[in-house]
């Protein structure tokens, strides 16, 4: 797996374009006052960056080379820059600015668990810092060395641990090395007729170990569960030896050690292997589009689906602003498409009483046997109808399914044009959804107003559970010329995060804590909760060698 | 809720009898060489016990009375004896022997969370030990003060915190005080049209807080999940203040604090309240009986059901010994019943090729709308048939459903006759089930042989998951006359537990660690796993005032 761009998302040469999307330019012009025609802030060239020399004592370097061989110990400047951070908007802005005060001193690429153990042993002996690195897709600041870290910093890239070691087809469990990227994992499982079913937006550029370390969730979580449900057994290299939990489906053996490792962001050790729940590839897989007259109607329908006997794999409904953004990113339509669209909107207005600017697009996924999928679609269709919604078929769903991993590229596209865009997501009980939605809108638009900037804020529900759901907000704004973009970003981001915890929602549903969300941890889990997490980290890593400064 | 018998399970006056079960006497005679006709070891009277005086400093007593009022501070001898232990077979044998070296010094009954806080504050100020007490049904030694504890020991009985405070019908979440017993919880929820769906065997004599503190699982876990799934938000009184987690359905906010409290057995603090997932009472609820030709066939069917699109609430299949025991506990049959049974067994032998001594009884539960239940039954019926099984209808299932909470009374009945009986249960991946089953049978019967005793060992599968299931073993033996019954019990129990961890199964699926299972913790979760749990407890309770000596 090639590393991502040092200044943005994805591989070199892959990027978002507005040129085949005729409605996007006018939409952005109207919403942000921005002319998409030209990029104003092209990323700098790598040669322009001023980088500090690595501080790697010869003895440590020799020990690391002994652990993994010389060619897997890299002090290459690009390697160090790519491994310095994740892909939060703060990371991208600073990378592009050349604001790189503390790079890792060395990137080490072990081949297997024994080599990970050897690296950790060498690092601890030298009192060095170890930061495990999967795909580098963190948007919560989980990968950056503390600015004031004076000890040598090792970025431990797990990318070579990329194999499915064994599939237990009787238990439907796969033993998998933690450094495997999403596509390579699915490729190996699919070849045997199985799937993990875990598809976060970062799927193409994130790893199993990263998902576990951050408590990830994929878009099909309604069927497959979150990564916490998928992960059954663990192997973790720790300062006191191999931490091993058995891949049992459930256990009563004290506070769950498995759940301590989930979300630990490298602070307890290095995850080298997991035994994960897999399922047989479904006979049929469909994502169907629906339209609702309002966001409230869409939310109510999702809530009723979660309470029903229907089995779905994806539940998603966008609010009106996100629906409008979604329509604005359509490719050029044929005359036939345009006529169909015209007919549909006329029907929605005249027959169903939709106000088109309030309309909300929804996707619901189904998996299983043909008859099962047909039955579930029928049952869901009734619920949708009861809430005034309309089934619009598989066309929009298929499109969503194809484009689902492309969203992060839009962020770079906007940043090239001086516009920061970011996301904040959270989970809450069903009864809090509209309160949180309203509060975040008030907070976000309040922040735009306070800054005197033109901004856009949109949201979708995804990941339904019996008792609640995730709300996923995306925002962008056009900074005041001459102002510090990051400082302005902080005002907006902080307002939204504060609205979460003030209204009974978690600081994140699946993006982790890192450094970005750490200021809200105590408000989320209470001071005694933070104390428990601190006790855990202090006990496991008294020398603070394991990714220090993250979470707490 | 009245306290249980000090020497056995359940309320005074409620007991198991063999007199209406004509087949049981001959069965026990054959299997254990025991004559049921007379009890040989009636429990002693309370007056015979020699009890140490409580050691309760006047200052602490005054502080406790200030916290909860004088009448809720009890040094009554019976109160102290009832609160001294749970209901493990080791507990019952020692209680009956009058072997009571370390009782709690005082039993305190707070009315609410504030009073719990006041009690904990007073206890910490006096360096006393606090042992939270729910229903006292622990069979893992989670409630006993360490024999060498020299500080005052407070048993904190949560029984007065028994109210459902609020039902959020939009989110289907109920805010409930932790001291509520199963029946009172369901009564309050049912009155509003909801159920928690958590029905462990201890249901009538255990509490919500106890379920959480021990990671309980109920017989309908296939539908409702384990208590870990049911529990969404928590309030826990800790030495550093109120630990509060939000009742969100899922979160990425670091290692899960909720999961640290689950299974913590009072070592992190006192659980005072939980927000639990509830569901609307199902329109229909059915438990259907099935017969399989062998245990292997029954296990394979359960495994296929877990892999199918069927939604069931209960999956249970007994091995041949448990099936035979089950038949032996039938009440006297009418001539019609006998003829029906004769016809059935003839059909099984002649048409389906069953060997009757290998036959296995199974129950599968269904809940939901009438049509949903009918569809699931039909789909399950096909799977059962594919594995050579036969549907025998709702009669045996209804009987099971009525008698399900009576099993613990049999243990006292046998102990009255000098026979110790106990259970050990575990979880494992589907692929390990037959290995573990065989290993436990070899270990259990090997232990009987080693001791030279006649013993019986039986098993059922319950609690199916996509990746595995729980195996639940019950054993009884007739000790060597004159030998130490407890020492002989330890040989059998240890052999079974060791077979679990030696074969990739957990030390327990839902009975917790306490002191009974603590010797196997390191083999289950590895030494670094134990170190994490120790770090957690040490950080939360540096003075070891909270139920010391449990789990680790």
Description:
- 2 copies of one chain form a homodimer.
- Chain A has 552 residues and is of the alpha+beta class.
- The longest helix of chain A has 19 residues.
- In chain A, helix 11 crosses helix 14.
- Helix content of chain A is 38%, strand content 20%.
- Chain A contains 20 helices and 18 strands.
- A 7-stranded antiparallel sheet of chain A has the order 15-12-14-13-17-18-16, sandwiched between helices.
- Among the domains of chain A are: 119 residues, Uridine Diphospho-n-acetylenolpyruvylglucosamine Reductase, domain 2, CATH 3.30.43.10; 117 residues, 2-Layer Sandwich (Uridine Diphospho-n-acetylenolpyruvylglucosamine Reductase, domain 3), CATH 3.30.465; 121 residues, Alpha-Beta Plaits.
- Chain A is globular, with a radius of gyration of 24 Å.
- At the A-B interface, strand 8, strand 9, helix 10, strand 11 and strand 16 of A face strand 8, strand 9, helix 10, strand 11 and strand 16 of B.
- Chains A, B: InterPro entries: Alkyl-DHAP_Synthase, FAD-bd_oxidored_4_C, FAD-bd_PCMH, FAD-bd_PCMH-like_sf, FAD-bd_PCMH_sub1, FAD-bd_PCMH_sub2, FAD-linked_Oxase-like_C, Oxid_FAD_bind_N.
- Chains A, B: It comes from Conexibacter stalactiti.
Q: Helix tally of chain A?
A: 20
Query: Which second-level CATH architecture of the domain at 284-404 in chain A applies?
Result: 2-Layer Sandwich
The backbone outline of chain A, from C-alpha atoms, is globular
Largest sheet of chain A: 7 strands, antiparallel
pLDDT average of chain A, as an integer?
96
**Rg measurement of chain A, Å:** 24 Å
Global structural class of chain A: alpha+beta
- What is the end-to-end distance of chain A? 31 Å
- Roughly how much helix do the residues of chain A carry, as a percent range? 25-40%
Largest interface: which pair?
A-B, 94 and 93 residues
CATH class of the domain at 284-404 in chain A: Alpha Beta
The main sheet of chain A orders its strands as: 15-12-14-13-17-18-16
- Quaternary structure of the protein: homodimer
* Low-pLDDT regions of chain A: none
Strand content of chain A: 15-25%
SS elements, strand count of chain A: 18
How is the CATH topology of the domain at 284-404 in chain A named? Alpha-Beta Plaits
């Amino acid at each position: 797996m090639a590393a991502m761009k040092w200044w943005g998302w994805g591989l070199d040469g892959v990027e978002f374009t507005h040129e085949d999307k005729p409605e996007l330019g006018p939409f952005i012009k109207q919403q942000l006052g921005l002319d998409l025609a030209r990029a104003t802030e092209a990323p700098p060239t790598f040669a322009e960056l001023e980088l500090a020399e690595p501080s790697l004592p010869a003895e440590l370097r020799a020990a690391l080379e002994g652990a993994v061989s010389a060619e897997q110990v890299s002090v290459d400047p690009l390697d160090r820059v790519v491994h310095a951070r994740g892909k939060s908007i703060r990371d991208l802005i600073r990378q592009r600015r050349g604001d790189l005060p503390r790079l890792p001193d060395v990137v080490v690429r072990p081949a297997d668990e024994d080599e990970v153990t050897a690296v950790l042993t060498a690092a601890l002996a030298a009192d060095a810092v170890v930061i495990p690195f999967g795909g580098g897709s963190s948007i919560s600041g989980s990968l950056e060395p503390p600015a004031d870290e004076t000890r040598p910093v090792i970025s431990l890239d797990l990318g070579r641990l990329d194999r499915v070691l064994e599939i237990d087809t009787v238990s439907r469990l796969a033993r998998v090395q933690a450094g495997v990227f999403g596509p390579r994992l699915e490729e190996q499982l699919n070849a045997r007729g199985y799937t993990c079913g875990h598809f976060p937006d970062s799927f193409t550029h994130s790893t199993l170990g990263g998902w576990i370390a951050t408590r990830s969730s994929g878009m099909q979580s309604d069927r497959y569960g979150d990564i916490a449900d998928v992960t059954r057994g663990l192997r973790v290299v720790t300062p006191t030896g191999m931490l091993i939990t058995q891949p049992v489906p459930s256990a009563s053996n004290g506070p769950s050690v498995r759940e301590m490792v989930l979300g630990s962001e490298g602070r307890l050790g290095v995850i080298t292997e997991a035994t994960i729940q897999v399922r047989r590839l479904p006979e049929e897989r469909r994502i169907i589009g629906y339209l609702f007259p309002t966001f409230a109607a869409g939310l109510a329908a999702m809530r009723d689906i979660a309470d029903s006997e229907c089995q779905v794999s994806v539940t998603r409904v966008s609010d009106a602003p996100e629906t409008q953004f979604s329509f604005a990113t359509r490719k050029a339509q044929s005359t036939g498409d345009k006529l169909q669209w015209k007919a549909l909107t006329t029907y929605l207005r005249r027959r169903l009483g939709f106000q088109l600017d309030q309309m909300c697009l929804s996707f619901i996924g189904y998996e299983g046997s043909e008859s099962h999928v047909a039955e579930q679609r029928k049952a869901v269709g009734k619920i949708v109808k009861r809430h005034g919604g309309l089934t619009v078929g598989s066309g929009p769903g298929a499109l969503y399914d194809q484009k689902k991993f492309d969203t992060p590229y839009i962020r770079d596209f906007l940043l090239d044009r001086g516009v920061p865009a970011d996301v904040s997501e959270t989970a809450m009980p069903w009864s809090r959804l509209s309160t949180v939605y309203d509060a975040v809108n008030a907070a976000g638009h309040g922040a735009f107003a306070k800054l005197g900037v033109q901004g856009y804020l949109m949201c979708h529900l995804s990941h339904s559970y019996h008792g609640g759901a995730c709300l996923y907000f995306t925002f962008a704004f056009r900074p005041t010329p001459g102002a510090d973009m990051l400082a302005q970003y902080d005002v907006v981001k902080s307002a939204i995060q504060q609205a979460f915890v003030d209204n009974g929602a978690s600081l994140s549903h699946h993006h982790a804590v890192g450094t970005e969300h750490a200021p809200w941890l105590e408000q989320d889990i209470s001071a005694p909760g933070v104390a428990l997490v601190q006790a855990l980290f202090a006990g496991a890593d008294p020398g603070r060698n394991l990714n220090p400064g993250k979470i707490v």
